[in-house]
């Protein structure tokens, strides 16, 4: 009962985390233009993401352009590309491994130890994917905040935290939570397996004792 509830909760949380990771990787709202001090041009919004930058104006629809070169990006965005791609790949791999280890699948022929190992692997992969996503999101957020309060940086070049960063934090938390849930499910499976093995052992010992006692009584009666 507890294992089934953990699996359902893990299914929901891991789905949210994986879809959110894919969305964050492709969203351009990592850095958003800030309207402060003398920067009163509020009819133009600039978005900067990992793959493209977009400009939205009041009278013109959204226009996006893919970056011409990776070297033109800042170091934090360059590293974020690789880390987010790795997080997306790990989350998808963890999803496949988790589905394989679910109770409803027959791939492991109902073997509890095998399912426990598969579930533990999926949990560790989810936690690793969450860490890979959390690093670039926090790195970019720290760079944005540092530039925002840096008096040397021009006001027009200052940016604010975009929606992709907030979604990235939520997705990373969901991935880590899904990993913890699957690890707990593996622990429950190990406990149930221990209880299942210990009961027959006690029963066998007790039966053997009774059998020995009966045999001993029979021998004494025959001797008399």
Structural class: alpha+beta
CATH class of the domain at 1-27 and 73-154 and 162-194: Mainly Alpha
Reading the helices and strands in chain order gives HEEEEHHEH
Name the poorly predicted regions.
193-211, 213-224
Biggest sheet: strands, sense, closure? 5 strands, antiparallel
The overall pLDDT, averaged over residues, is 76
Membrane topology: Multi-pass membrane protein
InterPro entries: Claudin, Claudin_CS, PMP22/EMP/MP20/Claudin
Organism: Trogon melanurus (Black-tailed trogon)
GO molecular function: structural molecule activity
Keywords:
single chain, 224 residues, alpha+beta, Butyryl-CoA Dehydrogenase, subunit A, domain 3, five-stranded antiparallel sheet
Explain briefly what this protein structure is:
The protein has 224 residues and is an alpha+beta fold.
Descriptive report:
With 224 residues, this protein is α+β, with helices and mostly antiparallel strands. The protein has four helices and five strands, in the order αββββααβα. The protein has helices at 2-26, 75-100, 112-148, 163-223, and strands at residues 31-33, 44-48, 52-57, 63-66, 159-161. The protein is elongated, with a radius of gyration of 29 Å.
Secondary structure layout:
Blueprint: H1 2-26, E1 31-33, E2 44-48, E3 52-57, E4 63-66, H2 75-100, H3 112-148, E5 159-161, H4 163-223
Antiparallel strand pairs: 1-2, 1-5, 2-3, 3-4
Helix pairs in contact: 1-2, 1-4, 2-3, 3-4
Subcellular location: Cell junction, Tight junction; Cell membrane
Membrane topology: Multi-pass membrane protein
Protein name: Claudin
């Amino acid at each position: 009962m507890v294992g089934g509830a953990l699996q359902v909760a893990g299914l929901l949380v891991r789905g949210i985390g994986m879809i959110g990771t894919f969305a964050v990787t492709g969203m351009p709202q990592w850095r958003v233009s800030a309207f402060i001090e003398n920067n009163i041009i509020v009819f133009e919004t600039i978005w900067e993401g990992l793959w493209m930058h977009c400009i939205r104006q009041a009278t013109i629809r959204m226009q996006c352009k893919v970056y011409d070169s990776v070297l033109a990006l800042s170091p934090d965005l360059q590293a974020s590309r690789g880390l987010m791609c790795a997080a997306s790949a790990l989350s998808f791999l963890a999803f496949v491994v988790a589905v394989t280890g679910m109770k409803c699948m027959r791939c492991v022929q109902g073997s509890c130890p095998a399912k426990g190992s598969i579930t533990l692997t999926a949990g560790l992969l989810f936690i690793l994917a969450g860490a890979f996503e959390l690093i670039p999101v926090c790195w970019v957020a720290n760079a944005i905040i540092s530039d925002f309060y840096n008096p040397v940086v021009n006001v027009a070049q200052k940016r604010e935290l975009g929606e992709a960063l907030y979604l990235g934090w939520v997705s990373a938390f969901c991935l880590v939570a899904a990993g913890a849930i699957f690890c707990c499910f593996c622990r429950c499976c190990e406990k149930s397996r221990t209880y299942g093995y210990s009961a027959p052992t006690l029963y066998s010992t007790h039966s053997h004792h009774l059998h020995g006692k009966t045999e001993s009584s029979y021998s004494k009666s025959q001797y008399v």
